[in-house]
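Apologies for my clumsy wording, but are you able to produce some protein sequence, whichever is easiest, and the tokens describing how it folds?
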Amino acid sequence: MPKIKTHKATAKRFKYSGGGKLLRMKQGKGHLRRKKSRRVLVEYRQTLLVDNVGAKRRVARLAPYLKKQK
């Protein structure tokens, strides 16, 4: 059985926390940065929890070798 190819964009955008929860960053942080306020730019640095079951399943299918802690 051959290995499954990892979708590289998905692997770069998502990661698992130490407890096994799927995390993501907010999108759009690099676009038109000078017009955005400091508060908005700080909010872009936060990691957000992915709680949608369909999104979790999609990420697991696209990046099967992403490290999942248990």
User: Anything to note?
Assistant: The mean pLDDT is 90. Strands lie at 14-16, 22-25, 47-49. The helical segments are 8-13, 38-43, 53-62. The chain has one domain: 8-62.
